[in-house]
Amino acid sequence: MSIHFTKKEFNSRQSKAIAALDERSLDGLLMFRQESMYYLSGYDSFGYAMFQCLYLGSDGRMVLLTRAPDLAQAELTSILDDIRIWKDVAGMNPAQNLKQLLKELGCENKNLGIEYDSVGLTAHNYRLLDSALAGFCKLSDASDLVNKLRYIKSEKELEYTRTAATLADDAYDAGIQLTKAGAFEGDILAAMQGAVFRGGGTYAGNEFIIGSGEHALLCRYHAGPRHLDKVDQMTLEWAGCYRRYHAAMMRTVLVGEARPEHHQMHAVATDALLACEEKLKPGNTLGDVFAAHANVMDSSGLKEHRLNACGYTMGCAYAPIWVDYPMIYKNNPMVIEENMVFFLHMILMNRDNRLAMCPGHSVVIGSGGAERLSRTSLNLEIK
Q: How far is CA 139 from each of CA 50, 249, 284, rounded to the nearest angstrom?
């Protein structure tokens, strides 16, 4: 079986979730986020692309409703022992299956939390669910309930995160060896992803991002890999992923030569990254961290080229994106705590001159502040 945490750790997480239910006067929770299902039970699947729901009652009972293809998946990757199947038939309405399950569990006229903010609960399925449960029970948005429990990482979660960070460094080493004039972006990506797989890692929550030339300014993956020019710039954003735990990194690499603007942007972005690390201490807020980022960039005359967020938390994540919440943005009041994990990205994009510079890496918060997880230098790489 592929279960990556002890029963003791799962029991601890479930107890905290039940306590959170009690604090909100909720009798149960309907989970549609795969991250929540993985966190509380180990269930590891992309079956959330279809209708599936994990129920947690205030009495500790957990029941998964999913499709037949995920029956063995749940049996072999989770601690769940009550797995129900809704069938693919003409006119199917899995929300009605869920209602029947909830009726069996005694949830009629109860107060249930639900993860509305979830990739796994599409607008179509929400409308089915809303119609099926109207008048049956009271639903309250509890999208943040499990997510808040996930902010603070356990020792085992930090172990997996550190492994993911090593894989991210390995991926960069593999990709940078191939980076030169004429290199094909597809080969660079293949080397990076291969390094993660060879190290025992898995697919990350979204595609590795690569862009060269004017596409070095793009923050998303796009189809159509190209060959690097004799003088070029290439931005990479990728993550090591181990047991679904992520450690992301970002770099802009230059080919042939660097323009003066590149050197200035690199110096400012690096200073901003160091300033953010200095502010990432228990007791400070994420707004404090963003202010450090903005102060460095704005005082250097690069305000118009920066973004309005400079990072976010990292943890277990599933497609379509590894971004976890909360994000680091202006005036975010969230207080930083020990054993949180963050990805810091200092993104500068000069759209007028089509120049980019984007260093970034992941850190874990210790009692004294941020510990950098990457071994990769912040020096400007010119190949």
A: 21, 39, 35
Amino acid identity for residue 277 in this structure: E
**What Rg, from alpha-carbon coordinates, does the chain have?**
22
Beta bridge partner(s), residue 65 = 53, 84
Reported pTM: 0.97
Which residues fall within 8 angstroms of residue 288, CB to CB, at 6 or more apart?
A: 279
Looking only at the bridges linking them, the beta strands covering 232-242 and 62-66 are unpaired
Contact 262, 358 (CB under 8 A): no
Sequence-distant (6+) residues with CB within 8 A of 9 are: 154, 156
Contacts of 257 (CB under 8 A, 6+ apart): 231, 382
Q: Contact, 28 vs 110, CB < 8 A? A: yes
Query: For tokens 């118009």, what's the residue?
Result: 304
CA atoms of 330 and 383, how far apart (whole Å): 36
Domains, in order of start, for the chain? 7-149 (3.40.350.10), 155-372 (3.90.230.10)
Sign of CA dihedral 58, 59, 61, 63: negative
In one letter, which amino acid is 289?
V
Residues 6+ apart with CB under 8 A from 369: 277, 278, 280, 281, 282
Helix spans in the chain (H): 7-23, 34-41, 71-77, 94-104, 123-133, 145-150, 155-178, 185-198, 260-279, 286-299
Whole-number Å distance between alpha carbons of 204 and 331:
30
pLDDT digits (tens, 9 = 90+) for 318-347: 999 999 989 999 999 999 999 999 999 999
pLDDT value at 1 more than 90: no
Query: What value does the mean pLDDT of the chain take?
Result: 97
Nearest-angstrom CA–CA distance, 296 and 313? 22
- Residue 109 binned pLDDT confidence (cut-offs 50, 70, 90): very high
